[in-house]
Specification:
heterodimer; A: alpha+beta; B: alpha+beta; four-stranded antiparallel beta sheet; three-stranded antiparallel beta sheet; 7 strands
């Protein structure tokens, strides 16, 4: 003990000041690099969330039974195709009851445009129920970082024949564009 | 005694320095590992996952099968022992009535094959593959390429792609998403029996 006292006093549980310094420097390097990398990964995850949200919007649309097309006898198809009369009804009444926003909820702002590629923009008239596109969600603000996802759905242009049957022979190609931002 | 103590102290000091360096080296290795891991994770930035593209491929296949096919211009030439006859696809022998979609057109091809087998004849429907391919081409997504095949009895009877370098499935690039749908017979109501497979439509999608 007397010898140790000659070499230098113990510092806590550490044998000497030099050991304490090495441990402190080492832990500082570890903590600093962990914090930095954690920040990098966290910001990456935040960006990735937008991509996941865009996918979630599409899945929410496909999970909405009201939009699922029905066959001649009004039985829903197994595959997801859009039922145009319902889509038009939701679009027409969107200012009265925003069913789309209530049904399609994700943790981000979004805009969904369903563009009927078989109806020209010039023919788009709300009064005679001819729609070239159906737009839901918020307007995209300027300068935001957008994530865009596009796919197609078949749009079944159903027209009633009787109260329990309909004509579903006409199909349009519908381009669905989902835009998501924070 | 004092010299011995001094030598011991010097050795202890050297050992402490080496221990310290070893410790720092381990710390630096761990730290570098963390940097490499996070750099690898974020190398390409956020992106749509493979599952998203797989879902898109499934959506595309379902959509195209549900689209109208321009059946009016498709002529079928049927030959059997009675002679050669020409029909529009919708009124060709064995072809059932239905909504004229791509799904219907592919089933019509199978119906014509069955007819040819049944009456030992042949048929030609040259306009059918381009009409089906036109529907796939119309629904192609920007920034992606596609290919499709219709396989009946193990034989690819129709195929198409927007990439003319694609000659067979082996030529398709990776990574790609593949989706397939087996078209089956629809038993008439009250007839019973299990649906039988007619053919398989395969759809491939990859990034341009």
């Amino acid at each position: 003990m007397a010898l140790r006292a000659d070499e230098g006093a113990e510092i806590g549980v550490f044998e000497d000041l030099q050991t304490l310094l090495v441990v402190v420097v080492g832990l500082t390097v570890l903590v600093a690099s962990a914090l930095y990398n954690w920040g990098v990964v966290a910001s990456f995850d935040e960006g990735q969330d937008l991509y996941d949200a865009a996918r979630d919007v599409l899945r929410a649309v496909e999970a909405w039974d009201r939009l699922r097309a029905r066959d001649q006898l009004l039985i829903k198809y197994d595959d997801f195709m859009l039922h145009q009369p319902e889509l038009a009804s939701i679009y027409r009444n969107r200012n009265v009851s925003d069913d789309f926003a209530e049904r399609v909820r994700v943790d981000a702002h979004y805009n969904v445009t369903l563009d009927d590629l078989d109806v020209g923009d010039a023919e788009h008239r709300r009064d005679n129920l001819t729609f070239s596109y159906y737009e839901f969600g918020e307007q995209v603000p300027d300068g935001v970082e957008l994530v865009t996802l596009r796919t197609h759905y078949a749009l079944v242009m159903a027209t009633n024949v009787t109260s329990y049957s309909q004509d579903v022979s006409v199909r349009h190609l519908c381009l669905v564009t989902v835009e998501v931002w924070r | 005694m004092r010299r011995l103590a001094a030598v011991r102290a010097r050795r202890d000091a050297q050992a402490a320095i080496y221990d310290g360096l070893l410790f720092l080296m381990v710390v630096i290795l761990i730290s570098v590992g963390m940097f490499l891991w996070s750099a690898k994770l974020v190398a390409d930035g956020p992106a749509f996952s493979g599952a998203t593209y797989q879902d898109l491929a499934a959506d595309q296949l379902v959509t195209v099968l549900g689209l109208n096919v321009g059946a009016e211009g498709i002529n079928v030439s049927c030959t059997n022992s009675s002679g050669t006859f020409s029909f529009e696809l919708a009124s060709a022998p064995n072809v059932s009535a239905g909504i004229r979609t791509v799904d219907w057109a592919l089933r019509a091809h199978c119906a014509l094959r069955d007819w040819a087998l049944w009456c030992n004849g042949t048929f030609r429907a040259q306009g059918l593959p381009p009409a089906v391919d036109a529907a796939f081409a119309r629904a192609a997504l920007d920034g992606t390429h596609y290919a499709w095949t219709f396989v009946v009895g193990g034989e690819a009877v129709m195929w198409g792609s927007d990439d003319t370098t694609m000659l067979g499935e082996g030529d398709l690039p990776t990574p790609r998403c593949a989706e397939e749908r087996t078209l089956c017979t629809v038993p008439s109501s009250g007839e019973g029996g299990a649906p039988e497979p007619l053919g398989v439509v395969r759809y491939y999608l990859w990034l341009a």
